[in-house]
Specification:
The chain contains twelve helices and no strands. The chain is an all-alpha fold. The N terminus is likely disordered.
Amino acid sequence: GMLSGAIFGTIASGAKTVLDFADDLGTAADQANINVERFQTLREAFRTLEVDGEAFEKILQKLIQAQGDVANGTKNGATKALDDLGVSADIVSGKIKTTDQLLDAIAAAFGGIEDPAKKAALAGDLVGSRLGVQFAAAIRDGGVALRELEGEIRATGTVIDEEMVKELAAANEEWDRFTTETKQRGVIWAADTIRYLRDVGDELAKLPAWLRFTPVGLTIAAFRGNPDDAIDGFSKQRDALEKQIAADEEAFKKLG
C-alpha cells in the first residue's frame, strides 16, 4: 500500500518533470522563432562556448528585435550593424525569415572580419555590450566551432525531435487540466461535505439529547438535513421512524 503509493508518486513526479521540460522547450523555441531541434543544438553549442542558456535566449531576443526593426525600416544601432554586415538586404527580401538563419548570416559575416575590436563593437550594437562580448567570442571564427558542436550534439542522439516535443507538450496540457479539475472537484466535494455536516448538525440539535447520537437519531438528522439525497423508499422509512421516535419521546417523558 504505502510502498506502491510512494513508487507511483515517484513515477508520476518524474513523468511530470519530463512533460514540463518538453513544454518549456517547445515554448522557448517558438518564442525564439527557431525550429525546436535547431534550438536545442544551438543552445547546447553556445553553452559549450561559454554562453549560458539565459544569455543565449537574451541574445536571440535581441536578434529578433533587430530583425523586426530592419523589416519595419527602423533605424538604430542594431540595424546599422546589420547593414554593415551586409545582412539587412536578405531580411528585407525575405531570404532570412527565422532567427537561426539570421544568426548563421551574422556568424558568416563575422568570419570575414579580422579586427577583433570591430567584431566586439558590432556584436555590442546588435545585442548590447555585456552580451556582445560573449556573442562575439562564440562566432568569431565565422560559426565554424558552432556548426561542429551542433553536429556532435546531434550525433549523441539526445536531441528531441519536434513531433515528440509537440506530443509531450500536449500531454502536459492534459495533465495540468486533469490536475486542475481534480482539485476543483475536491473543493466542491469538501464544500458539499461541510454543507451536509452543517445541515445534519442543525437537525441533530432539534432532536432530544438522549437521541441525538444514536444510529436512529443520526439517520433522521441526515434525511432531514438532506432530503434530496434520500433514495427511493427511504422517505417513508424516515416518516415511520420519526413517528416511532415521537412516541418513544412521549413515553420517556412519562417515565420521568
